[in-house]
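At this stage, I wrote out one protein, both as residues and as discrete backbone shape codes, and that material follows here.
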Amino acid sequence: MFRTWSLKTFLSGIRLFLGLCLTCFSTAFASTDQPEPFGQTVPFENLPGGQYAIDLQINGQGPFKFMIDSAATRTAIFTRTLKKLHLQTNQGAPAFINGMTSSRYRPSARVKEISFAGHSFLNHDIIILQDRKDMENVKFDGILGIDLMAEMTFWFNHQNQNVSILKNASLPRTKLRHWKKLNLKRTPYSGKDYGLYFIRTRIAGRWVPTMLDTGANFTAMNWKSVKGTVIENELRRLREDWVVNGSVGVFKPRQTVLIKTIKIDKIHLKNHYFLIMNFDNLPVNHYGKYPLIIAGMDILGGRDFILDFPKRRLFIAPPKQSQ
């Protein structure tokens, strides 16, 4: 005996069958999802210069205050912190450290454990920095570098004065739909990849590579970046003054200028101060051979932001969403 099906019942059966297929497919596909995000939300402290610092534990001791520095390839502590921890420096060749104005060899030390925001790193070598002359004014114990941050996402919330530090982070698209998204690039010039992150700045009709530096409280550019602009005239004036004064020492021109309007990637700045100098100690622009800008925290204007290092993204909140 044949069973008669109405068209409505038949279509309902198709919908049910397709629904079951999609459910099975979704279940199978779920096994390939990313691992669950993990980490913690911790308080941050704004240092006098506007940079961000969080607390770390080292070998079970602490807390020690570390400045978050996206332009530091290695995590480091000052000599005074080394003494507090009673650590011994490593034997063998020291590490060569490049700074904005100088370069030098520095020793390292191995720590059994560094932990922060639910993350732990075992048997890690850190750089030992020389104490500064004004150490009484230095409000942090060390620098948190890219070697420990490269797999993490940092979400800064100024209203709550905290930062969420997560691995395998999944960012909410709906919440971020009005945020500015900047793609972070790796080393812009040929040669070694130092693991740093770059955006770009529009100057004189060209884009200049711009290194994102959360450890800087100012934005600077080298003289090659302003070539072809009226600011280049300042370089000639400074050289003339140097010659008139007897050409003493090495010519190291520095000048702070107020730029009325400039575009750093998707960030439009008005009446912003820039320090102009040479970056002859930095390998990322071949020791001063090419244009380079270093963007400090001043470009964000105190807004909330997300640094997604694994996916190379920077999200910046609209001013009204940062309180």
